[in-house]
Every structure is written in C-alpha cells, then in structure tokens.
Design brief:
mainly alpha, Arc Repressor Mutant, subunit A, 2 domains, three-stranded antiparallel sheet, 8 helices, 6 strands
Amino acid sequence: MTIAAYAGTATFRRPRFRFLGFGLFRTDVDGATALLPPITRTMLARLVLARGSLVDADDLYRDSWPDPAPTLRREQRVAVHKRIAELRRCLAPGQITDPMTVLLTERSARTGYRLLLDGDQVDLHVFADLVFRAAAVRDAVAVDLLVQALAMWTERPLLGLPDKPFVRDHLCRLAKLRDRACRELAAGCRALGRTRDARAAFDRLQAEHPEDVALRDLIEQLSDDRQPVTAIAWSR
C-alpha cells in the first residue's frame, strides 16, 4: 500500500521521507536525519520492513522491546501507543500533514498498525525491486538493472538494530537476493560477452565487504569462466 491515494487533497503536503537500510538503519525527513530512541527506531524498522502489511500491536511490542514481558497487559499496550505517537510526530514535523495518513491504526479484534510508503522511499525495497524487475526482462536491460542493484550494496544492511527474529529473517532474505543478483549478473554478462561488467561489480563488492567469506566464495565460483551459463536462459 502507498499514500498516493491521499495526495489529491488540497491541504495535503507530504514530507520527503527516506528510509535507509544499508548501513545504520535511519530515517531522513525533509533531508534531516530523525533522531529516535532505540526502541522507537526498532519499531519503525519493523513497520518499514513489513512493507505496508498490518503489524499487530502485540507483535510490535515483542519485536521492539529488548526484554518484552511474557504476557502483554494494559501497561505494555500503552507503551506501544506512546511510541506510535512519537513516530507520528517524527513523520509529520511541524504538523504539516496529517500523520494518520502515513501511519494508520486499524482496530478489529486486536489493534494493529500499518505504515504507508511508496516503494522508492526505502532503499532496501528499491534494491529488491531492481532484482525482481531484472528477472522480468532480458539481455542488456536485465544486466543493467542487476548492476544498479548490486551497486546499492555498499554496507551491511540493518546495522544498529537489535538481534531480533524479524531483523535476522530480513537479513537472510536480502542476502539471498544479493546472491541471486550475482548469479544472474554473471550468467547474463557471460551470455552477452560483458564479463568485464560482472567482474567490475564483483570487485567492488569484495572491496567493500572483505570480511564476507560467503560472498567471496560465491564470486570465486561465478568468476570461473568454465562454469556453464545456467542461471538465465538469455540469448545474444
């Protein structure tokens, strides 16, 4: 879901948000980095990574607090509500727009929250979309999209967030997407006679992540010219 449907009202002016997940997870609002307490920042990350899906208030509490209580009571739910209010103030500085159109509360049997963003506001989503778009096209267009995607991987994602299951799961998905992009780039460049482009992308990745043994092993495997092109059935 996005907030585009709300943009047609005369009084609406959306702040310029950027949610940056490569490196230290952070949020820019109108060009300034938002300073949030650790729990609030973790809560925001949980909502951002849900990509518009509803996040139950109880899950938000368990995923954001360092030592969550085993049983949620009114005290814990009030604490979540206070953090949500803090996020809304962050997402609508100076009351220039209605924060409810960005961070929604949905109530049924249980209360949940949904953060409405456009895809290009989150760098991790842009990265994933580039990889998926490359799979839907062919030849040089796909190679160029994969090069763009891998160029975004400048730092390890989601630094500064606690070791929570939602963080580990997302890191695993991102690593799989990165490895997929590497394999498809190697195959596509080999099919098109553009192996130098793949080598340049891989050299940059290795230079920026010398400690990543799994990435190094993958690149060494893909750099073997004797390896058959099997990742993508592209033609010249």
